[in-house]
Amino acid sequence: MDNPERARILQGMTQASDILIVGGGLNGPALALALAQTGHSVTVIDALDVKVRKNAAFDGRAYALALASQRLLAAIGAWDRVAEHAQPMLEIKVTDGHAGTGPSPFFMHFDHAEIEEGPMGFMVEDRHLRRAFLDAMAEEPRITQLSGKTVVSQQADTTGVTVTLDDGSTVNSRLLIGCDGRRSGTADRAGIKRTGWDYDQTALVCAIEHELPHHGIAHQFFMPPGPLAILPLTGNRSSIVWSERTEAAQQINALPEDEYLQVLRPRFGDFLGDIHLAGDRFTYPLNLTIANSFVADRLALVGDAAHGMHPIAGQGLNAGLRDVGALAEVLTLAGRRGEDIGSLMVLERYQEWRRFDTAALAMATDVFNKLFSNDNPLLRIGRDVGMGIVGALPGLRRGFVREAAGLTGDLPKLLQGQPI
Amino acid sequence: MQAHPNTVDPSEIAKFEAMAAEWWDPHGKFKPLHMLNPCRLDYITQQIAGEFDRDLKSPMPFEGLRLLDIGCGGGLLSEPMARLGAEVVGADAAGGNLPVARIHAEQSGLQIDYRHTTAEDMAAAGEQFDVVLNMEVVEHVADPAGFLTASQQLLRPGGLLICSTINRNPKSYAMAIFGAEVVMRWLPRGTHEWNKFITPEELFDLLRQAGLDPVDRKGFVFNPILWSWSISDRDLSVNYVTASVKPG
To answer: In chain A, how many domains are there?
Structure first.
């Protein structure tokens, strides 16, 4: 240390919380709110300043929150803060598209009227979601936010874990939770390796304004280079997520706005009337990365830190919020039994609950993508017939609607809208 | 260098630390106890909360309660009780586990009074508790009636005894001895003697004879498909648990 005096002073600065969360994006704050609600003190560390994260300009990013995720947000007191900015998704239409020749005659149509619970989900802009979480955390006395700081090292022992920050201060807690994304430093520092692969695909993401109303209908077109989704935002706006081979995606993204739109328009036709861009453009290379373990002694990984998956069906955030619900429930129940919440014994229950579900979802989206991002004529016929069958059978269709709403599987209490 | 509070011999400490790690390893040789533990703790905490009107959602709900864990072993029940705020005495007639339990409690930052003694000796010394836990003990003692009487004497009037054991029938023989000891090797062979198992009716009679009012009984049921335990109102055919209150 170049300045031993300063190091000594900073070393004396130690904070303590029951739980320390690294990553203040979306899953981190959701988990902090859920755990604070059941009596835990929580510290949330993020490298970015709160002001930067609250920046309210629309950048084009949005999420399809499944109904179950919306229920979790309501249960942790964040939904009221985004409700007015949320667009209900009333129907989903899935079509096997083919640029130039128009949509295939077979398509699947899922209507929320098939289930009694409500809309299948809501489209919410990234900025509204982030601000809702930050405001909710600021009002919760059990949550401490450490912003503009990064973790330098972490050390687990028999009672807890000590994390050292870049300013030399330390934070002690009983449990460290990595909500720090698919390149999780928390997982790296714990020596947790990852398994995964890259697709030669990149997602192009943008928001558009369109002439005609969308009526709350989400569209998914399966095209040979990759899927294209049109997801309804509030007003006459939609979020577009569109995959192409990586090289083509980079070329398209570099085009000026009018040429970019010229590439986009023929892919889904003119049913929304005239379109233009309503925000920034983004690209995300598609890859699958799953941590070999979701837990270690005094450590748990949540969301993309545990499983970064193909965003084909917009399931990344929804899967993360399922992790949040499951982990908050496991820790809270363990705490009420007097168990050590940072022990592997307790944390493995979370891993058992989420790992199978996650692996199944990652595999399904992978297979789905391979099946549909393909121009093989036999596969085309097969999937068109398959879609026709799903569309014709109400029972199967209802199953898909419930799946899209996130209502299937062993649902954590918070995702059923119930307190723990 | 400061002397270790539990030290007798430094080489012993390393051995006990290794044993503590083994006791508390969820995949180690006490795996069956770890698997059953959440169920046992759910039952115990809910019974205590009900009897003493405590809110399990509050921090340290058992503050002010004095609790005795008989047959405490490595402290798998003593530690959670201490974490919930109870003043805990852990007693074990086999002294070998106690240094292990002490080291683990200290590593966990918990205050627990572990003693090498028996229920009978503590009762004779006039010790008094709000709660006595006899979990998976009564099937191992030579004189169940005398043991339960001593447990009753250790309770203050209005105090709670929680006692779990294994039923005696062909199914319990198949599950607890043939299944757990011989096939799965979960438990060392000879851990259980089937003729010492007690039916719920016999246990209720013994509890009444000891001067207690049995108030509840439930089954702990292992589901081999989900590979986990749950509490059952009806199925007491193998592992089961009872709650009794000392009148007064």
So the answer is: 1
The ipTM of this complex is 0.88
CATH code of domain B10-245: 3.40.50.150
Quick check: A392 pLDDT over 70?
no
The least confident of A70-84, A272-286, B45-59, B147-161 is A272-286
Q: Which pLDDT score is estimated for B178? A: 63
Q: For B103, which residue in chain A has the nearest alpha carbon?
A: A158
Say if A117 falls within a structural domain: no
The answer as to whether A261 is a domain residue is no
- pLDDT category of residue B44 using cuts at 50, 70 and 90: very high
* Entry pTM: 0.87
Other CB atoms within 10 A of residue A395 CB: 7
Evaluate whether residue A18 is within a structural domain: yes
A342 to chain B: closest CA residue: B108
Q: Is any Cβ of chain B less than 8 angstroms from the Cβ of A288?
A: no
- Asked whether residue A203 is domain-assigned, the answer is no
Q: Is B32 on the interface with A (CB under 8 A)?
A: no
A10-40 burial, b if ≥16 CB within 10 A, otherwise e? beeeebebbbbbbbbbbbbbbbbbbbbbbeb
Q: Which positions in chain A touch B79 (Cβ < 8 Å)?
A: 338, 340
Domain that holds residue A189: 4-56+125-195+287-372+410-416
B112 touching A (Cβ < 8 Å): no
List the CATH number of the domain containing A311.
3.50.50.60
Q: How far is A193 from chain B (nearest CA, A)?
A: 21
Strands (E) located in A211-272: 217-223, 226-233, 237-245
Contacts of A90 (CB under 8 A, 6+ apart): A111, A112, A119, A120, A215, A216, A217
Instruction: Tell me whether B38 touches chain A (CB under 8 Å).
Output: yes
Cβ-Cβ pairs closer than 8 A, A with B, add up to 43
CA A343 to chain B, closest CA, distance in angstroms equals 9
Q: Where are the domains of chain B?
A: 10-245
